[in-house]
Design goal:
elongated; mainly alpha; DNA-binding; Arc Repressor Mutant, subunit A; Tetracycline Repressor, domain 2; 11 helices; 2 domains; homodimer
DNA sequence: GTCTATACCCCGATAGAC
DNA sequence: GTCTATCGGGGTATAGAC
């Protein structure tokens, strides 16, 4: 029989596709091999185990979220970058619910013993990116003074918690209603975190992504 | 060989123990059967599939959380019940991290196609219990007026989100530090949700569980 | 080096005997 | 209601072809 060579990247691509379709159970070494026109043991030239493949999938998920977030840096002011980052986070979670939940799923759900350092780092990096947006907004007087890390974590927790409840089906409402509830809940929380300057400026940002040409290339 | 009969309850007990120890992968029909001194096909008299066993495990997790929460009803005032419910929720999550994460894990992580109605109901019930505590506090003037469901969801999201980040390892701090950060973050959020009456009464509640004899039976 | 072929063991699930 | 026997599928270690 003919033999064909294979790239690590192709395995990961196939794994991501299978994962999005069918979760951890949808990813099997034999299945990936079949997809790629190869036999299972060949995959072990590139990955030591299925667990290592799954690490790659989770890493890829973080990479895609990072891609969504990165665009927020093009915003002209700290407050716009803050808002765009929040919107990007929300959009990623709603566009790719399974990948989103994967990033917070706990190692045993992904067939891992512990969270690999690589994955933990990526998780912390998301937090750092967000906290940087918060820091800017404190410096520019949009948010009340305080530790950017602690304040940022409060907001991150709120956003992730709400998304988690929604994606899990605990909030049985359609996506459009959820986006409204998300905004309302965010605003409720911001009463304690924003300054008057924040309140004044926030309303003017409703159409920022339409106005800012740099963000719709 | 001698044959022995088996109860559904025993299977579930064993399944919960195995699950807490090793996650979904730690639960196998053959393993459970071995634990119970029986062969695997015998289990299928009580459960149609492994998936159904896992539904039982998740249900059990919800039941245990409900047990934690139920004690909060013994508090003498709405604010005390509110606080005790919050503490119970936090304690359950920190005492049983794997069971806690299970309740929000998404069906595919538990080997299910969809969230069974039974599980969804239990999830909503937790929300309703909490929202009832919020409703009481609004009525008694501890929380600002508004929809109890929406305000309750905001707080639930914050608590779950923070716990989720911590249990996932995104906040690399010891449990004691996390409890402090949780309190601080909760307080930050409550600036926008509580009344002056809440602010005044909250400090006096720090030792409520020591003082209230009904809660340490 | 990179693949194929094979094999081992664990798993979920079913059929049919007692 | 349980057993034995069995099927299909999965992770992965090893041996050997090119």
């Amino acid at each position: 029989m003919l033999t064909m060579t294979i790239r690590r990247e192709d395995i990961l691509d196939s794994a991501c596709r299978c994962y999005v379709e069918g979760g951890v159970a949808g990813v099997s070494m034999r299945g990936l091999a079949r997809d790629l026109g190869v036999t299972a043991p060949a995959l072990y030239r590139h990955f030591a185990s299925k667990e290592e493949v799954m690490v790659g999938v989770v890493s890829e998920a973080y990479g895609r979220l990072a891609g969504y977030l990165h665009r927020a840096l093009e915003g002209p002011t700290a407050l716009v970058r803050f808002r765009l980052a929040g919107e990007a986070y929300l959009s990623f979670a709603l566009d790719h619910p399974r990948l989103y939940l994967t990033m917070y799923a706990g190692p045993s759900f992904l067939g891992m013993q512990e969270i690999p350092e690589e994955v933990a780092q990526r998780g912390c990096a998301i937090g750092r990116f967000w906290n940087d947006r918060v820091r800017e907004c404190i410096q520019d007087g949009y948010l009340k003074p305080g530790s950017p890390d602690e304040i940022g974590t409060t907001m991150w927790a709120h956003a992730h918690g709400l998304l988690s409840l929604y994606l899990r089906g605990v909030l049985p409402i359609p996506e459009e209603a959820f986006r409204r509830e998300f905004d309302a809940s965010f605003w409720r929380m911001m009463v304690g975190l924003g300054t008057t300057r924040f309140d004044d400026a926030w309303a003017g940002l409703q159409n920022v992504d339409v106005e800012s040409a740099a963000l719709t290339p």
